[in-house]
Amino acid sequence: MTRSNVAARSATYTLTTVMAVVFLLPLVWAVVSSVSPSPGTAQTEGFGFGNYTTMFEYGLGLPTYLKNSLVVSVGATVVTILIAATGGYAFARFRFRGKNALFVMVLSVMMIPYAALLIPLIVWMKDLHLQNSLIGVALVLTLFQVPFSIFMMRNSFSTIPRELEEAAYIDGCNSFQAFYRIMLPAVRPGIVTVGLFTYLAAWNDFMVSLYLLSTEKAPLPLALVNMRQQTMGVIDYGSTTAGVVVLTLPAIVLFLALQRYYIRGFTSGAVKG
Amino acid sequence: MSQSTFAEPVIAPSPPAPPSPGRRRRTASQLENRRGWLFASPTALLLVVLFVAPIIVVVVMACSHWTLLGGAQGGNFPDNFTKLFADPLLGKSIAFTLKYTALTTVILMPIAYGLALLVQESRRWNTFLRTAILVPSALGIASASLLFYAIYSPQVGPLNGTLEKVAGTEAGASILGTPGGALWATVVLVVWRFAGYYMLLTMVGLQAIPTEVYEAARIDGAGRLRTLRSVTLPLLRPTIAMTMILSITGSLLAFDQFYILTKGGPNNSTLTIVQLIYRDAFETRKDLGLAAALSVLLLLALVIINMIQLRALRLDADEK
Question: What is the pTM of this model?
């Protein structure tokens, strides 16, 4: 190894460390600050969980908001997987009338800004009897995941050899059984990727719930923003930071556990469309 | 009522013929068509109910007198659009949104590219570094905004004290208190949140470049910089174009970060277009028709911008 190589390498390592610290620091700060003493918060003396207690007891209580978040996130994930798996299979394997038109429609969901659909959805959800409904929000979030998810699943199904289905048909399966018993297990990594992207998007959603839900039905992000504004004039940064930790920790753990599936979402070409 | 009884005989289909053995055996393509629709129907249903229908509704609303509390009160085209263009905040918010979009894209793209190169270079730590930079991507924009809201606060944030000493700002003054401060604070937040995302997209593009190309460049005696300029960058053009499209489209629709960090302030200096829609609907005018008119405008603008960008991308790909 030449001397300039060594210099370049140590420069790279230094820069690497600095970058890693820069990106992790805000998160570390949130954890430390949420248990640190600070005037104007619930934790004025010594380290402790005073801010977490305030946050837990705000409004209807943390369990309610967590439950709302879970209904939206799990609901959106289940429906998205269902739609993307069936739709992706249809696009990968069958020729049917209107296939191209439907595919163009899927693509155009990407072209249309979702922010422009929220005003009509306030009115339209009422007509669908999904006003102020967590399931309604889950369905809207599903719509925004449709283009990526259908691409992902179509690509996944395309890599499975047709012989697999033909064998299933010979064994007496009908098309639904072949799909459910043979094809779905074969595309499990694609399903996990779709599920992960949807779950994170729904867990983190703020805007759709802001438009479509009342404060009692608020999922965690909306509840935290409401909590911050509640205290007249004086903002309780302590409980806000504690809330951010509670909100982000599950997302980060899930992300770290399934990171390779997250990266798969990029390498599969589905993001590019 | 009378309409449906009148129409019935005309559209009523003839009763289905009793199934005969010959008719039951469909051709293979008919069977495939049926199966295809069987699997595609959940997708089609969702798109019709929650995508096509709202687009129709937004157009109707944009052409109606429709208030938040009073509901639909009949057509009034083109009143909503006239009112919209008479609002000085429209021009202001468009100008700010464009400025913010240009700023984030110009800052985010080189950072993402630099990080991608850095992660590829540092072999041993590369997984750890990649993970560290990607972790903010697990956060929502709203959660990240709340986090930075606390970081920027004079009460608990670590930055104010430092800024007092370094930049000589007033003690206790909020970073978000000036138009410039509010804009840059938001840009920093967005770069932190999205750098990993765009880094990953760039890395995928970098890995698609075959190693033989680099070997050929080395054999030809090209140095590092020369290789970067003449080999990597040109071959990465489609990726760069794509990340730019995503960044531009995303920034044009910015909402959460400004709603939470700046509320459009100070003095409406950081009001984005999407925020104006929300304001017209719920805060200032409580006029859903007006908000719908702005939604339609935004929708058209984004469709046009997306088509131009996609065409540019396709032309770029065709050149190869």
Answer: 0.90
